[in-house]
Amino acid sequence: MEYKFREIEKKWQKYWEKNKTFKAFDDFQNPKKYYILDMFPYPSGSGLHVGHPEGYTASDIMARYKRMKGYNVLHPMGWDAFGLPAEQFAMDTGTHPAIITNKNCDTFRRQIKDIGLSYDWDREINTTDPGYFKWTQWIFIQLYNTWYDEKLQKGRHINELEVPADIKSRGDDYVRSYIDGKRLAYYDKALVWWCSSCKIVCANEEVLTDGSHEKCGHPVEKMNLKQWMLRIPLYAERLLSGLDDLDWPEGIKDQQRNWIGKSTGAEVKFHVENTGDIISVFTTRPDTLFGATYMVLAPEHELTARLTTGEKEKEVRKYIKDAVLKSDLDRTDLAKEKTGVFTGSYAINPVNNKKIPVWIADYVLTGYGTGAIMAVPAHDERDFEFALKYELPVECIMNPDTDDQELKEKTLEGKACWTEDGTYVNSSDKKTGLDINGLKKEEGIKKTIEWLESRQLGKATVNYKLRDWLFSRQRYWGEPFPVIHWEDGTISLLDEAELPLELPVLEKYQPGENGESPLANATDWLMVTGKNGMKGRRETNTMPQWAGSCWYYLRFIDPHNSKAIFSKEKEKYWMPVDLYIGGAEHAVLHLLYSRFWHKVLYDLAYTSHDEPYLKLFNQGMILAFAYETKTGAKVPADLVEEKEGRYFHRNTGEELTQIVAKMSKSLKNVVNPDDIIQRYGADAFRLYEMFMGPLDASKPWDEKGVKGVFGFLTRVARLFGDLSCVSDETESDEILQALHKTIRKVENDIENLRFNTAISSLMIFTNLAVKKGKVNRDTAKTFVRILHPFAPHLAEELWEAYGNKESLANEEWPEVNEKYLKEDTFEYPVSFNGKLRFRLELPLDMENNEIENAVLGDERASRWLEGNKPRRIIIVKGRIINVVI
RNA sequence: GCCCGGAUGGUGGAAUUGGUAGACACGUUGGACUUAAAAUCCAAUGGCCGUUAAGGCUGUGCGGGUUCAAGUCCCGCUCCGGGUACCA
Predict the structure, then answer these.
(1) A748 beta carbon to strand B: under 7 Å
(2) What is the nearest nucleotide to A749, using C1' and CA?
């Protein structure tokens, strides 16, 4: 068969589409279900790049394999289509963002279909579709109507929240604000990052460490604006502990754990001298209280003004003003040099009643813990640095566990800082009754907390880094909030029946005044009148892009349901996602937010599992070769010439070094999947994406590699497609053994997502078959079946050529016949003192002493023994023989 | 700084998890076919020594160690990539 890949691929893509070969049925009778999900893409204007199909091909191989294994497979695709570029385009041209978005979706869909991926296209979803975002809005309403019951560790409907009697007695306003204070979604003033270039607020995590907006690179500033926030920290503990049982890469779990940032310690109360105020601090080291020599408040702390004494007032006020105005950019820039001011007040250290000064410094953050710390310079690096600069006392209370005598002495003298374990010294006080001298850290912490709790001076506490999630954006192209702000200052949410709240068509998409979204210009849409005649205004913010992607995996289960977000029965059948494949760039945000929403829906009994994604796999990044001169200057790929495996500058002739870099327009090394498919076909494209290396590794694209797999497909077509090479003769044992070994290997490799080695074993088998020049029909049919997940078009074509009428997609995966895997003999590598000297073929059932005799009896052995008697002979059956002399 | 990865031929990468290092593929070289080229096919291909051959030595970022045996385990580094940023 001549390998006419274009024809073959078009033919089968049409066939699959026409016959709905990959339609997933809600077949509740079949208990074997497999839900395999790709992270759906944002359909950008530049189309698919070679990175997208890497994960998609991997999931497709798995999906096709599982179908052959008898699973009912759910394998859907959709579009995460709200996003900035479409809105920017609308601003520039006046075109509605939906128009450009739909165009981009069309391109993506066409490109994905060209690769021959086995999606159930009847389940396609688009986050910008009102039929979809109706339910995104619905989830927001659920969040708003949910509070977190700390006792039950569970989200519950707001109607089940008991309002304390003393609140009730104070009137409706108090009740309302009490309830609002418990909702998972709340509307409040928040100090937020503002990007004046995008005219939008950004979530903390969208601000890069250099203080610039990740979307545009413009520096951000702080602003106090009313925003929707979600109380994700309430779920911190469950988000953390839920990770343990997930089959996710450990690195990703670690990232989430770090992001959640749990730390255990204690809250301790310090009385301020004279004023009667109490400063509460969070510390992970209550055991070091005896070493606390000063305290620090964050500049934003509520007590700063009260604690500042007259003569310090001017200085303090200036410091606070500067600090608050400083962007995080400046704060981190100045991280090396800490600054602060003394308030003039003193607090009392509860363990020894000593007076310690209260300072204000911006190295203490307002959003974490209580926004105030006790400083223990002898045992905390930051405090030590600060104490040194402002000449505050350093009191060592722990004899370090170290062999470094110099360090030990310096620490004991308060001239060095020790943060590890040790034995307490100077840690007792007769009057207060606390004594931990001689103890180690673990016991010290325990004993101190007990002491604090018994005197009501503090209590054991847990803190999380995870902050409330800023959930609104000043954009047009996002889900509108189903919210009305009434003129009396109250808020109400739309009824479910009023959903979806669609976006109004605008004439222009420029942002509104005072940091409002373009929706502020949509007067007709914006203003509403209530039944009682009260005037209201709709929320002009929209939801962030995360919203749509937070729950899309649930909608795939029942994408056309207009009555409910999804049928519970179907959800119970399909969930959880068995395998989720996507890029590691979503390690924290998308996956954490998504888990959060899922847990809320679980608590409200909409979903049947606590976690959405059982197994997660991150594909690596696809990079490209790039070239640079000796001085490190990058040279665009079109100016590079290859001669005998070396690289030269086309113009200057200078020799260049090949490096690996991200694909970029400036380096002219971007690869378009369309070109590759045009030249080598979709099967070769798929195969190469998988053959490059391990799925989770980052690796460079090399077109020469595509040629390699293309050659493989050509050889397959030539041999297995030439019916004169496919005989009815009895198959040789050699081929059968190789075939069954290949089935086993491919099966194992697919299960473990090691597609590169699976392909390699398919190649090895093909090389053998080509060498033989012919195979029997059963062999050919078996081979084509295991080739199918990788190169489905060619496999279907061959399958048809063997006289089959039905698509290969629903055929059974071939079974391994163990008979062909058993070997009687093994060619042992024989080593002397660990060095391989010769090989010796021996029966596998030979006894060890017989093996010894056979080895020592071999004439080649005498040469290495040199007359010595072996001290030991190690025999590992079927593996190796090592003679120790 | 801290937390995760990673480093194997000229290149992408294999190596049953402690047991034959370099599978498979690219590239290169030589050969066949061709008027020629492309395509295809065959052979060789880690480095060094050995005229050939037989064979030997050496070799998985660096330095130590454990073991009959280390790419794989342990200790100490170097470099590269990702995440994070004073989290008390």
Answers:
(1) no
(2) B16
- Could you give the CA distance from residue A34 to residue A574 in angstroms, rounded to a whole number? 7
User: A807 to each of A35, A249, A474, A588, how far by Cα in Å?
Assistant: 22, 35, 50, 41
Q: Is the CB of A825 under 7 A from strand B?
A: no
Low-confidence residues in chain A, pLDDT < 50: 334
Chain A residues 563-602, Cβ below 7 A from strand B: 584-585, 587-588
Q: How far is the CA of A863 from the C1' of B50 (A)?
A: 20
Residue type, A493: L
Instruction: Give the pLDDT of residue A447.
Output: 95
Which is nearest to A547 in space by CA: A204, A215, A80?
A80
**What pairing do the DSSP bridges indicate for beta strands A622-628 and A699-701?**
parallel
Nearest to residue A467, comparing CAs of A259, A633, A690?
A259
Contact call for residues A185 and A143 (beta carbons, < 8 A): yes
Q: Does residue A632 reach within 7 angstroms of strand B, measured from its CB?
A: no
List all residues 6 or more positions away from A585 whose beta carbon is below 8 Å from its beta carbon. Answer: none
Q: So what's the pLDDT on residue A568?
A: 96
d(CA A651, CA A638): 11
Residues 242-271 of A with CB under 7 A from strand B: 250-251, 254-255, 258-259, 261, 263, 265
Distance CA A663 to C1' B70 in A: 38
Nucleotide nearest to A361 (CA to C1'): B86
Q: Which fold has domain A263-463?
A: Isoleucyl-tRNA Synthetase; domain 2 (3.90.740)
Distance CA A402, CA A281 (A): 30
CA A739 – CA A750 distance, rounded (Å): 16
What are residue A826's DSSP bridge partners?
A842
ipTM of model:
0.94
Sign of the CA dihedral running A684, A687, A690, A693: negative
C-alpha atoms less than 13 angstroms from C-alpha of A790 in its C-beta half-sphere: 31
Closest CA to A619 of A35, A51, A60: A51
List the A871 CA – B18 C1' distance (angstroms): 21
pLDDT at residue number A326: 66
Largest CA distance in chain A: 110
| DSSP β-bridge partners for residue A461 | A265
Q: What is the CATH number of domain A825-884?
A: 3.10.20.590
pLDDT in the model for residue A260: 96
B29 C1': nearest CA residue: A644
Packing angle between helix A703-720 and helix A755-772, nearest 10 degrees? 40
Contact A881, A840 (CB under 8 A): yes
pLDDT of the residue at A634: 78
pLDDT at A333: 56
Query: Which tokens hold the place of A851?
Result: 């093996």
DSSP line for A832-868: ETTEEEEEEEEETT--HHHHHHHHHHSHHHHHHHTTP
Q: Taking the domain A31-145+183-260+465-480+544-621, which CATH number applies? A: 3.40.50.620
Give the per-residue pLDDT at A332: 57
Go through A74-112 and write b for each residue having 16 or more CB atoms within 10 A of its CB, e for each that does not. bbbbbbbbbbbbbbbbbbeeeebbbebbbebbebbbebb
Q: Where are the alpha helices (DSSP H) in A94-164?
A: 97-114, 130-144
The CATH label, of 1.10.730.10, 3.40.50.280, 1.10.10.970, 1.10.1040.10, for the domain at A1-18+674-820 is: 1.10.730.10
Contact A372, A298 (CB under 8 A): yes
pLDDT for the residue numbered A210: 66
Q: Strand B: which nucleotides have any atom within 7 A of a protein Cβ?
A: 3-5, 10-16, 19-21, 23-29, 39-42, 56-57, 68-70, 81-88
- At residue A703, the pLDDT reads 87
